[in-house]
TrEMBL record:
Pfam families: G3P_acyltransf. This is Acyl-phosphate:glycerol-3-phosphate O-acyltransferase PlsY. The keyword Transcription does not apply. GO terms for biological process: phospholipid biosynthetic process.
Length: 193
């Protein structure tokens, strides 16, 4: 019973989409702006650094909070599955017509709770690549891609490593359109509107 409760709590926390809430507070429907994606990158391109910073912070913190709640409800080993549920909630939020973001910040927030050194390293790599390339999707794929081998190096094994692999896979699948654009040489960059 506690496992189902931990997953439900993580999903519903993950469903709180700051990429929708922050723009709405500024009078903007983010679904009708830019790429239409309610993520940090589109908010940055549409509303600038301050709004994007609020979205990024909110999504990171909800990842931390969802995984913390999962650990409190069902124990630390099960918290890895709570991270997956939070990313699913972010990607398919019940509160926002199941139209969510790609789960990168939420996944990194969960990673920061589960394995702080690996999560921090992945976040720093993400920041460095964004600053160098101005392409959030490249940074996201590399930063999130660090989690699986990084967790394995920190002796994460068994179902916790399977959960981490699922989290990474979900985020990669959510980036399929970005990957197609990258391969075609036309991926969006971070240029504030």
């Amino acid at each position: 019973m506690e496992y189902a409760l931990a997953l439900a709590v993580a999903y519903f926390v993950g469903s709180v989409d700051f990429g929708v809430i922050v723009p709405k507070l500024m009078g903007i429907d983010i679904y009708s702006e830019g790429s239409g994606n309610p993520g940090t990158s589109n908010v940055f391109r549409t509303l600038g650094k301050k709004a994007a910073g609020l979205v990024l912070a909110g999504d990171l913190l909800k990842g931390v909070g969802a995984v913390w709640a999962g650990a409190m409800i069902a124990g630390a080993p099960f918290a890895y599955w709570s991270a997956v549920a939070a990313v699913i909630g972010h990607s398919f939020p019940v509160w926002h017509r199941f139209k969510g973001g790609k789960g990168v910040a939420t996944g990194l927030g969960g990673a920061l709770f589960l394995q702080p050194l690996v999560g921090a390293f992945a976040a720093l790599v993400w920041i460095a690549i964004v600053l160098k390339t101005k392409t959030a999707s490249v940074a996201s794929l590399i930063g999130i891609g660090i989690l699986l081998p990084g967790f394995a190096l920190r002796d994460v094994r068994g179902e916790q490593l399977v959960a981490t692999g699922l989290l990474v896979t979900i985020i990669y699948i959510r980036h399929a359109p970005n990957i197609k654009r990258m391969l075609a040489g036309g991926e969006n960059t971070l240029e504030a509107g």
